[in-house]
Every structure is written in structure tokens, then in C-alpha cells.
């Protein structure tokens, strides 16, 4: 069939994982170059790096270079006109891919390289030995961490910062809304993640290529402590990894010029992005994501396919709630025989800061090439279940470029009060555990009588034990405040 010469296609992918036994990892700059060259070789077009129009790098948490894109371009012997160093979040790689496809489709670029690398495991190992990385081109005045939005005052007051403490809130709310028992939720979560470990065990790039049973994953032990209850350590994303990835995107005309075989080309058929509220307690539906549903529907509609047409999925799996919400948005069963990941997921394949989705795109390209005549869906989740990106990849060409980000009207956020005194109902809760495994602090989201929400902390050991033993959602609690922080008891 005839393909528009401006149609963007993914032509080369590469991944690199340096596990602890083979470490230390190269510095990120060296890894960027290595995977870039490997991706060009994967396309059968090593000369492609000489004529790149754009280079996009996913924010590197391991090391702050003075000019990341310029340093990589120099290493590749290239001078790209479009240079991007991203912000943070699990949706970043998919947004960069969509931006590259749009630029190519519009005729502003012929080829764009997307790369990422983290060496957080090596950095952590050096720190344990009292050393620091001796890597190159360090920024003389490293800029602050690029938060898009700072937490609101009440989240700062209640220390609502860590994803391992916020994502369980959504799962607890979902569990309660469905009337599922604590034991049944754990069993379901274990089965879902055990299936992911089977994929990770077969993935040569996985950080933990080891198959585990459901019981091994969800049963708390000294080696598998609770992190943010009900999540155990083996069911949360592992960020301190040494991993790198690259994806090479170019126009069909450029792929033809460089002789890229047709069977190496994968097309971005649909892309959509939507946001839920940035403040966790403001989510109108704590047990689901309207933004996910909107982005999923828009991406599939743009691609002209339905869920039944997809051969493979990689649903963002930092925590169980992101996977469950993703399945809910698609009307997908958690035990769908097609599987929910092509990598093994962030807890097992590895979750390198903001870069995981570039690995899932690379793995999906490999899967689609192998299956042939197929479509696959890759998703990303950013911040505290706030940002959602959906990308449909296909062996079949579609429109020259995806349209602008698509969203749908979403429910208004719930108002969030800074303080509260009196009765309130529990809307969601979790219990943070210390490194020794002991329960440390409870975090509650409360429904107030006037329709607003509020946060509260619980530190009484007996109350924490009670919260973990039964369903607390819907219970009435007594709230006191010191004018800044709320405390709850029952």
C-alpha cells in the first residue's frame, strides 16, 4: 500500500540493563550514546545518527549535566536543530514520542532520537561505600528538581509526598467501593503481579528476571515488609536501577532513503493525554480515573481500533492501583489472556525514574515486529495518579501524525479543606511502615459534612493495627487540628 512520505515511524529501538553483579553501570551520558547507536543499528541504518534533526532526552535523576543534549550530540557527531531535555513523570517518554511524531508529520523534522538512562543503583552503591560518582560534565549549579506543580499547603502539612503512600489510597477506595475483602484484594493483587513476574523472567532487559508466586509477592515477611499498606515491597516499583533505552523515529521518506526495511517500521496510530487533579484528595472519584478513561477512549478512537483489536498491552504498573485503574478505563479484565505488560512491569522489569515508558515502547516494538499485523497499547502515569498518556502502536501505517492531545470534559475536583474539627467519614486510608517493618503513621482522606475533603494523620499504634485489620472506609472518625495538621481517632 502507498504510505504518505511524512508518516512517522519507529524504526530502531534499544535497551540496556546493567544488573548489580555486572556493575557498576556507565555514566548516563555513555549509556545514552550506547543505546542510541544500538537503536540505529537495530534499524539497519547506523548513518541515521549523522543526520538527526532532533534529540530528546528524558530527565535524568542520576546526574545533572551542564548541557545534556549538547553533550550527547557531540558524542554522536551531530548538531540537531531540535533539542529537548524533558521534565519528570511517567508520561514523559510518550509525550516526547508524540511530539516527535507531530514534528515529523508537519515536515519540521525528518528524524528524532529519544533516549533515557539512569544509574541510580550504581549511585546508591557508591554512596553506601562513602563515594560519589566521578562522572563528566557536571552542572556547576545543578538546577532544582523540576516539579511541575508543588503540593498545596495542606499536603505539605500532612507530608503527602511519597507515591508509595498515595497510590494505596486509590486502591483502598476502589476495594471498598467494590465491597472486596482485604484478603480477596491481596490475592487478586498477588495473582496480577505474579503474571507480570513471568513476563519479567523472560525479558533479557528486566532488572529482576525472576518468576514469583502470588503468595511470595503479597505475604509480609522481614524481606517483604509493608511499605504503604496494603502494598508489600515486592509489589511496588523499583526505581534504583541501572537502565537505558532509545527509540529512533523518522519519516517514511527518511526511512526509505536510509533503506530501513519495511518490517522494522512501527507506527504511532493514536495518542492522547489527560489529567486528573494534582491534589490527591481533590480527585472526585478516588476509586477510578475519569482522565484515564478519557485518554484511553481518545487514543483508541484516533487509531481506529477497539480494545479487542489490541494484541498486547503495557499498562503503567508503578503500583497496583495504576494497573487496576487502567484496566477499568479500558473495560479490561485483570486476568486478560493477552497479559497486561510486555516488559514485566515496573516492580520487576525496573522503573527507572521518569524513563520506564521508553522501555515499554521499545519492548512493544519488538513484540509487534514478532507478531506482525497487530496493534499494541502503551500507557503512562505521572505524579500522584494525575497525568495519563495512552499511545497505540501498530505495524500498520495510519495518519501522518497524531492530532493534538485529546481530552474530554472531566468532573470538577472536590474542594479540600486545610483543617477540620469534628466528625468526618473515611474516604481512603493507608499505613506507612518504617524500614524495620513496623507501622509508623496512617494517612487518611476524609469526607467532611459540607462535601469538602481533608487529610488527617494517625499515629496511635493500636489504631494503626486496627486500620490494617478491617475495612475502615466509610467509618466515622473524630478529627482534631492544631491549626495546621489534622489528627484522627476512633
Describe the overall structure.
By secondary structure, this protein is α+β, with helices and mostly antiparallel strands. Helix content is 30%, strand content 22%. The chain contains 13 helices and 15 strands. It has helices at 28-42, 68-76, 92-105, 120-128, 153-157, 163-177, 182-201, 214-218, 252-258, 290-303, 320-330, 356-371, 461-467, and strands spanning 8-17, 54-57, 82-85, 111-119, 228-229, 242-251, 267-275, 310-314, 375-382, 387-394, 422-433, 439-447, 453-458, 476-481, 486-489. Strands 5, 11, 12, 13, 14 and 15 form a six-stranded antiparallel beta sheet that branches. Strands 1-6-4-2-3 form a five-stranded mixed beta sheet, sandwiched between helices. It is globular.
- Average of pLDDT: 96
Spatial shape: globular
Tell me the number of strands: 15
Order of helical and strand elements: EHEHEHEHHHHHEEHEHEHHEEEEEHEE
Strand content: 15-25%
**Mind telling me the C-alpha Rg?**
23 Å
Unreliable stretches covering 5 or more consecutive residues: none
Secondary-structure blueprint:
Layout: E1 8-17, H1 28-42, E2 54-57, H2 68-76, E3 82-85, H3 92-105, E4 111-119, H4 120-128, H5 153-157, H6 163-177, H7 182-201, H8 214-218, E5 228-229, E6 242-251, H9 252-258, E7 267-275, H10 290-303, E8 310-314, H11 320-330, H12 356-371, E9 375-382, E10 387-394, E11 422-433, E12 439-447, E13 453-458, H13 461-467, E14 476-481, E15 486-489
Parallel strand pairs: 2-3, 2-4, 8-9
Antiparallel strand pairs: 1-6, 4-6, 5-11, 7-10, 9-10, 11-12, 11-14, 12-13, 14-15
Helix pairs in contact: 1-2, 6-11, 10-11
Amino acid at each position: 500500500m502507498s504510505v504518505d512520505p511524512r508518516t512517522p515511524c519507529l524504526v530502531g529501538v534499544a535497551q540496556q540493563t546493567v544488573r548489580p553483579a555486572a556493575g557498576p553501570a556507565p555514566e548516563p551520558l555513555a549509556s545514552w550514546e550506547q543505546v542510541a547507536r544500538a537503536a540505529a543499528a537495530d534499524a539497519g541504518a547506523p548513518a541515521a545518527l549523522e543526520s538527526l534533526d532532533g534529540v530528546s532526552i528524558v530527565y535524568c535523576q542520576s546526574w545533572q549535566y551542564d548541557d545534556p543534549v549538547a553533550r550527547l550530540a557531540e558524542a554522536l557527531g551531530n548538531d540537531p536543530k531540535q533539542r529537548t531535555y524533558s521534565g519528570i513523570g511517567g508520561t514523559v517518554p510518550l509525550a516526547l514520542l508524540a511530539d516527535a511524531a507531530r514534528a515529523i508529520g508537519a515536515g519540521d523534522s525528518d528524524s528524532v532520537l529519544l533516549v533515557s538512562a539512569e544509574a541510580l543503583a550504581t549511585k546508591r552503591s557508591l554512596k553506601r561505600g562513602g563515594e560519589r560518582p566521578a562522572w563528566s560534565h557536571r552542572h556547576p549549579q545543578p538546577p532544582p528538581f523540576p516539579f511541575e506543580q508543588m503540593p498545596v499547603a495542606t499536603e505539605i502539612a500532612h507530608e503527602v509526598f511519597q507515591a508509595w503512600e498515595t497510590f494505596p489510597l486509590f486502591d483502598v477506595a476502589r476495594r471498598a467501593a467494590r465491597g472486596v475483602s482485604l484478603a480477596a484484594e491481596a490475592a487478586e493483587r498477588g495473582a496480577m503481579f505474579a503474571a507480570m513476574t513471568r513476563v519479567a523472567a523472560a525479558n533479557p532487559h528486566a532488572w529482576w528476571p525472576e518468576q514469583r508466586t502470588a503468595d511470595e509477592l503479597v505475604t509480609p515477611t522481614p524481606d517483604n515488609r509493608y511499605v504503604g499498606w496494603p502494598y508489600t515491597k515486592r509489589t511496588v516499583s523499583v526505581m534504583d536501577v541501572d537502565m537505558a533505552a532509545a527509540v529512533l523515529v523518522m519519516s517514511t521518506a527518511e526511512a526509505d532513503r536510509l533503506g530501513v526495511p519495511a518490517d522494522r517500521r512501527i507506527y504511532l496510530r493514536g495518542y492522547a493525554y489527560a489529567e486528573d487533579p494534582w491534589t490527591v484528595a481533590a480527585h472526585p472519584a478516588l476509586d477510578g480515573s475519569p482522565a484515564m478513561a478519557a485518554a484511553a477512549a481518545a487514543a483508541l478512537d484516533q487509531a481506529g481500533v477497539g480494545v479487542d483489536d489490541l494484541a498486547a498491552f503495557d499498562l503503567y504498573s508503578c503500583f497496583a492501583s495504576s494497573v487496576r485503574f487502567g484496566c477499568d478505563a479500558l473495560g479490561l479484565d485483570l486476568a486478560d489472556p493477552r497479559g497486561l505488560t510486555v516488559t514485566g512491569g515496573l516492580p520487576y522489569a525496573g522503573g527507572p525514574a521518569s524513563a520506564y515508558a521508553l522501555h515499554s515502547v521499545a519492548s512493544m516494538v519488538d513484540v509487534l515486529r514478532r507478531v506482525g499485523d497487530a496493534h499494541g497499547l502503551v500507557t503512562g502515569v505521572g505524579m500522584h495518579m494525575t497525568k495519563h498518556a495512552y499511545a497505540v502502536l501498530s505495524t500498520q501505517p495510519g495518519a501522518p501524525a497524531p492530532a493534538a492531545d485529546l481530552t474530554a470534559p472531566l468532573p470538577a475536583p472536590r474542594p479540600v479543606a486545610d483543617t477540620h474539627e469534628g466528625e468526618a467519614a473515611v474516604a481512603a486510608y493507608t499505613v506507612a511502615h518504617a524500614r524495620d517493618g513496623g507501622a509508623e503513621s496512617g494517612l487518611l482522606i476524609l469526607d467532611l459534612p459540607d462535601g469538602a475533603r481533608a487529610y488527617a494523620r494517625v499515629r496511635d499504634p493500636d489504631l494503626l493495627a486496627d486500620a490494617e485489620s478491617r475495612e475502615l472506609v466509610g467509618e466515622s472518625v473524630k478529627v482534631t487540628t492544631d491549626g495546621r495538621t489534622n489528627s484522627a481517632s476512633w
